[in-house]
Amino acid sequence: MPEGTNGSVDHGGQAEILQILDNFVESMSLKCVVELGVPDALNSLNYPMTLSQIAARLPFPNLDMDRLSRVMWFLSCRKVFDATVDKESGETVYGLTDSSKWLLTDNKSESLVPAVLLATHPCAMAAWNCMSTSIAEGGACGFSRANGSTLYDFQSKNYEYKKVFREAMACNTRVVMKAVLEYYKDGFNDVGTMVDVGGGSGDAVAEIVEAHPHIKGFNFDLPDVVASAPDYPSVSHVGGDMFATIPINADAIFLKWILHNWSDEKCVEILKNCRKALQEKKGKLIIVEAVLRGKSESLFDVEAQRYDLKMLVISPSGKERSEDEWKKLLKLGGFPRYTIIKIPSFLSIIEAFPS
Ligand SMILES: C[S@@+](CC[C@H](N)C(=O)[O-])C[C@H]1O[C@@H](n2cnc3c(N)ncnc32)[C@H](O)[C@@H]1O
């Protein structure tokens, strides 16, 4: 224990470490109320509800009311729920807040429930327990060490985890695309043809084309991924390998959450192939990724910092990057000019130009 000048224990910093240490209590409590269906129950009536009213809407005949009340109290202290004492009955009544509106399951376009279930999944938790070993020994990442195979191989064997993972990715796309479409509206005006490289099922490009019908959209991903992608009007699916070539000439390439999966060397390969596929003069790259900032201006900056370690734990070479790192990478990949556009998300838009 550090000692003060008069030999007494210096208590400074203790609360800060405890605050960081026990953040998992918040995560697991969120998971708990999501699994129980509390936010949806609170959303089923237009007025604040007592604990008994909440319980009556949950499918658990043996529900432990005392335990539930303690979780509700804790999360109300964190402003996840609103708790007030009803003047007439003296009972506490609970309601949703701006935060818990993101925990509803019937509001898919603005739900973080799949993200809660992925972040707190036992396989994810096990991976964090192998973080220090992966650093001490190098080689396999925490996820592979904990679960016996890489993230994607594991998903091919574990359907339940694959579903949770896919839903979390889709939820991220829905939430982030809302911000992209709102804050980058004019960015799509001069785009005639756009390719979403690594677009997965094509949801993102489909949303862009729906909002900007003058765009001809292509969804480019691995052949087996596009083979099972749904049909969208004005979106053509093209299968291939982004490390070989991107076989479509376009005014714009959309790259959402691709580069953070790869090492700098691999990213440069992808960027060079994007460069080749773009119109020389008016072509542009629209990257949607985190930009690490050492000084946290908002909670989204903190989330981006956390994501770098999430990538460290789940993938062998994935990482988030600072503006300086993006600048170097883009230059090496043939994009010397760029602009960063902040959006209400832990991801930003990086608009990059070949000349
Ligand atoms: C993390 S996901 C991102 C998907 C989507 N852009 C999004 O934001 O939800 C990465 C995507 O890259 C695709 N991918 C991986 N390797 C690829 C390759 N060599 N060529 C094309 N796509 C690839 C994967 O199939 C997957 O759909």
Record keyword descriptors for this entry.
3-stranded antiparallel beta sheet, 16 helices, globular, 355 residues, Rossmann fold, Arc Repressor Mutant, subunit A, binds S-adenosylmethionine, 7-stranded mixed beta sheet, alpha/beta, single chain
Describe the structure.
The chain has 16 helices and twelve strands. The chain is α/β, with parallel strands linked by helices. It has two domains: 91 residues, Winged helix-like DNA-binding domain superfamily/Winged helix DNA-binding domain (Arc Repressor Mutant, subunit A, Orthogonal Bundle), CATH 1.10.10; 245 residues, Vaccinia Virus protein VP39 (Rossmann fold), CATH 3.40.50. Strand 5, helix 13 and strand 6 form a beta-alpha-beta unit. Helix 2 packs across helix 5, helix 10 crosses helix 11 and helix 11 packs parallel to helix 12. The radius of gyration is 23 Å and the shape is globular. Bound molecules: S-adenosylmethionine. S-adenosylmethionine binds next to helix 11. The site of S-adenosylmethionine has 15 residues, from helix 11.
In total, the number of domains comes to 2
- The percent range for strand residues is 15-25%
Q: Main sheet: which strands, in order across?
A: 6-5-4-7-8-12-11
CATH second-level architecture of the largest domain: 3-Layer(aba) Sandwich
Structural class by helix and strand composition? alpha/beta
Small-molecule binders = S-adenosylmethionine
- The CATH C-level name of the largest domain is Alpha Beta
Instruction: Say how many strands there are.
Output: 12
Cα end-to-end separation: 57 Å
CATH topology of the largest domain: Rossmann fold
Radius of gyration: 23 Å
Q: Point out poorly predicted stretches.
A: none
Mean pLDDT: 95
Shape: globular
Largest sheet: 7 strands, mixed
Helix count from the secondary structure assignment? 16
Provide the CATH superfamily of the largest domain: Vaccinia Virus protein VP39
Domain O-methyltransferase C-terminal: 128-335
Keywords: Methyltransferase, S-adenosyl-L-methionine, Transferase
Domain O-methyltransferase dimerisation: 19-106
Pfam family, one: Dimerisation
